[in-house]
Amino acid sequence: MTLKLSRILPACALAATPAFAADVAPVAAKTQWQETRHGEVVTDDYRWLQKKEDPAVIAYLNAENTYTDAATAASKPLADKLYAEIKGRMQDVDLSVPTRRGNYYYYSRTEAGKQYPLNCRRRAGANMAYDDKAPEEILLDQNQMAQGKKFFAVGAIVVSPDERLMAYTTDVTGFRQYEMRVKDLKTGKLLPASMPRTTSIAWASDNKTLFVTQEDATTKRSDRLFSLAAGGGAPLQRYHEPVEQFAVYVNRDRDGKHLVLTMRATDTAEVRLLDAAKPNGTFRAVLPRQKGHRYSVTHRDGRLYIRTDKDAPNFRIVTAPLAAPQPKNWVELVPHDKDVLVSSADVFKTHLVVTEKTRALNRIRLYSFAARTWQTVQFEDPVYTADSAGTPDYTAGQFRVSYQSPLTPPQVLDVDMNSGKRTLLKQQEVVGGFDFSQYESRRLWAPARDGVQVPLWIVYKKGTPLDGKAPLLLYGYGSYGAPNDARFSLARLSLLERGVIYAGAQIRGGNDMGEDWHKDGMLMKKKNTFTDFIDSADYLVREQWTSPERLVIDGRSAGGLLMGAVLNMRPGLFRAAHVGVPFVDVMNTMMDASLPLTTGEYLEWGDPNQKAAYDYMRSYSPYDNIERKAYPSMLVTTGLNDSQVMYWEPAKYVAKLRAHKTDANPLLLKTNMGAGHGGASGRYNAIGETAFLQAWMLSQWGITQ
What we know:
Layout: E1 3-8, E2 33-37, E3 40-43, H1 55-71, H2 76-89, E4 94-95, E5 99-101, E6 104-110, E7 118-123, E8 136-141, H3 142-146, E9 153-159, E10 165-171, E11 178-184, E12 190-203, E13 209-215, E14 222-229, E15 236-240, E16 247-252, E17 258-264, E18 269-275, E19 284-285, E20 295-300, E21 303-308, E22 316-321, E23 331-334, E24 341-347, E25 351-358, E26 361-368, E27 373-377, E28 385-388, E29 398-405, E30 408-416, E31 422-427, E32 439-447, E33 453-461, E34 472-476, H4 492-496, E35 501-505, H5 515-519, H6 527-542, E36 551-556, H7 558-569, E37 576-580, H8 586-590, H9 602-605, H10 611-618, E38 633-639, H11 648-660, E39 667-672, H12 683-700
Parallel strand pairs: 34-35, 34-36, 36-37, 37-38, 38-39
Antiparallel strand pairs: 1-2, 2-3, 4-6, 5-6, 6-7, 7-8, 9-10, 10-11, 11-12, 12-13, 13-14, 14-15, 16-17, 17-18, 18-19, 20-21, 21-22, 22-23, 24-25, 25-26, 26-27, 28-29, 29-30, 30-31, 32-33, 33-35
Helix pairs in contact: 2-12, 6-7
């Protein structure tokens, strides 16, 4: 390709402290920046906004925040009311279901008025049962750790096999770069061992050697594996992944026999094992890396259980001897099914638990090694999601499941692996009550323009007239094979009781209908994601669930790209849109290999250094396809410390859109100046952000109470 830099004027060429009026939409200055790509001269008037350290950039973002505050002042009383509602429904004091690991039960709990949880444990009682009278050990008091910080998050917590040491990671900026520390659980003191930019952790059986993967400081690709002593000393690099499309992670197998090093790209994986009792040994590949082959492994009784997509696009499960895992020795246990995606396999001493997805719903199947029989765990709701809730004990006879639906608050269940019987351990309480009998959830199927049926899930108040007048919020994502499962939301109840219909579109690009559903919404088929969403919206309008004047849409991150694309394609179909932490500056980001989530994502989006991929991506990139025309009302949100989608993508998008759009509809940018991709970290701060967003949406429908 041809890459030629023509001219760059830095932001310092502007006034150092630009003046903006609070009640007037800020107008970003333009600078000249050009680049020639594949013969196309590309201009980016707002490139200067990428200089985070420039005071003019911060002044502009602050001006946008001030303008947004002024423009939404009328809805602030409603936002305050929504905040009180959401907070009032939440349990201020709560306790997670304790989970046994070894001789202890681990749990987290929250205290009234405090933003963050406490991570705790209690020693198991008689017959290894949970004993709430046993002394509580507070492992981490996140409230103390968060004092004086704008943002705080705990990532991994991994206790040593002898239960005396704990490695954990924290992020204090929102950039999702986690530092690892090690705590002596007997003395409470921190040990010398530490590691910046940690992405995963595993203990060796000697209780003193840690294996840690680390991400690159610039690209954030998890590319190196180190071993280090908990007591201190220089880390020893054990592996470096040279291929930019791969990331590496380490974990300890459930039976504790092996450390598992996984190298993973979008379409290929490789797994290497190391005897956990021999930390100075060498990781050895289970199967050699083969382009297009994805697999994962777990160990039981000298055999490997391999989830593989070799000759099986939706995956299958085979077993093979640990000493000879080659395909010629495979014995098939779960065959491939074109209509069923094998999502995961959990191996225990007596059972195999397989989580699958078929027709956009999860199911869980249990296999008894002794009886060689299968049984399926049944769920009743028309739309729901059911996933593993984590069962670390290899000898467990119960498999822990998290279950929820749009009208079923999250439940934690134990499923007896022999009988399949479910035991409810906990259900999220809706404080103050909510009459769920007045609401209904359903499955809908929207016909796409190429003939496929797109699944949607929908929840609404019973008796809502289907006359096109109901306010409807349509949410979509559609990337990375991530499903849009039908989940519960405590905050969403405030919308439902005000008559809002909520719909989730399970469009291509996710894996809701299997791996082909993902593949049909990526690379050179990415536009299926956008047309599926538009066709779903058209269907909802045609069936009179709503109308364009009453339809608000919502998408975040890659779903923000979805929002930007459909708003360019069919702006008149929507009343308003929330465009959250949006990946909208596709070409500038994907042409910059130094940025996070660029080269590693060529296999998802395409490599723009190739002309055909460049042209295709260029044809839908939201920032590059803004036109002089009318757009609906828009609220764009971001975080200054976002590492997934840099803050400047939404900032540049809003600046360019404001200069081009021909309508008088509001266009607002709100930047959290102390957080990243996920927004505020404290639970009350997060509620505040949600209440603000909901109040803005309700104002678009003319709902003020």
